[in-house]
């Protein structure tokens, strides 16, 4: 199947999301669609999937001009899309969600009464390949973000799409799962399917793309064969002049030698569905960035939620500056001292129908008066917009109208505002282009220099090794190792992630003086 997008233009109010874009998608080809946040990648693909009509231009399917006015129409043509936001029913099992994805056969066919013809084996075929070991009767609410992402992909693969559009499919996948996905993409292309991969990750490009298309500010700036690409050339094509950012200031790291820990996590245990965390003991110094590594689904989400008071504790306590913030047996509570950037902020951290200003004000809504003065709120929203380069830069815009990356920047900006003692950041740079990720790291370090303790959950081991002071590995709900990045390599951490390495014996109570953690510059 061949697709030609010809002179496609799409505007949202004053924003030109796509400006006269032409692109051929050939059979058996993997195209990586690159561009900074808000460049217009998702909009272009959403038009191909029938979610938006183009304002101008046409789409040709196998040489014939075709109006794709709904996702149903797109799917009937063999075009499938996996979005950044998931479309799953959490209370149903993996298998139920897969079955729900099959379109209902029309009323005049016998298939309506005798099932859609797919055998259980067929329904589970791709699931077994992409997520071996994931039981089909597991409830979706108990899946990690990475597993949910794979499930979304399996739903589309099951529908036998000839052209697959994947929006940031590896942003939440740990390295092993990303590799498995690259392998699958390669196989799909060999079998004649086409894949458009919207991504910010150069590893994705190098691992499986045949051709790279770079967009910037709604325009297509370059198309390259993969062999012609280098990481530097792609970054400068994506970012234009704004690729010149000052290096991340890691030199002036807070010195926590001799100081008591700011955050003490004692014997923390909690449970949610089938997920649990057991006996977590960690101290985080003032100014320290403690990375949490682990394969997704090993308790990261629960750890973050229980630290910020969204989940009751079964055992244990969280102490900030010697004062108990949460403990078992007490109703969980949130605190202004604690900032939280949850995974999937579009679902977990914003009200998408409300304006950017209202969403920023939500972080301190308890302190707002009955008739709030919106001027200072708008002022601080403008400050976040300017600092993190959120686009479009309109505080009155509904948050749901921001691109995924720009929404992420807004949430990080909101959470890092003002005085914070503990910052819990789950995948804060997920879905961000290199420039925006750089700005977020810069902001986290600035907060650490002010004395905040940062617990940073990430699946990007390279980033953790580059920026965290220490890395704790979460495996099966327990800490399986704590590492100083200068004194270990990726393999040590990998072993702890898979449970090959046992926790050191002095591990249960990490009450060592903090100087033993100090980074050796
Ligand atoms: N439904 C919408 N209403 C208003 N503006 C929109 C809408 N969807 C997208 N936009 C705007 O169009 C521009 C392009 O957004 P798009 O989501 O296509 O970017 P993107 O390149 O996919 O970004 P990201 O990498 O952050 O996901 C952005 O400025 C965005 O705010």
Automatic annotation (TrEMBL):
Source domain of life: Bacteria
Among SMART domains, the record links this protein to: AAA
Q: Does the keyword ATP-binding apply?
A: yes
Q: Which SUPFAM superfamilies match?
A: P-loop containing nucleoside triphosphate hydrolases (SSF52540)
- In this chain, the stretch annotated as Disordered covers 500-521
List keywords of the entry alphabetically.
ATP-binding, Nucleotide-binding, Repeat, Transport
Q: Name one GO molecular function term.
A: ATP hydrolysis activity
The ABC transporter domain covers 3-242, 248-501
UniProt-listed CDD domains: ABC_Carb_Monos_I (cd03216), ABC_Carb_Monos_II (cd03215)
InterPro entries annotated for this entry? AAA+_ATPase (IPR003593), ABC_carbohydrate_import_ATPase (IPR050107), ABC_transporter-like_ATP-bd (IPR003439), ABC_transporter-like_CS (IPR017871), P-loop_NTPase (IPR027417)
This protein is called what? ABC transporter domain-containing protein
**Species this protein is from:** Marinobacter nauticus
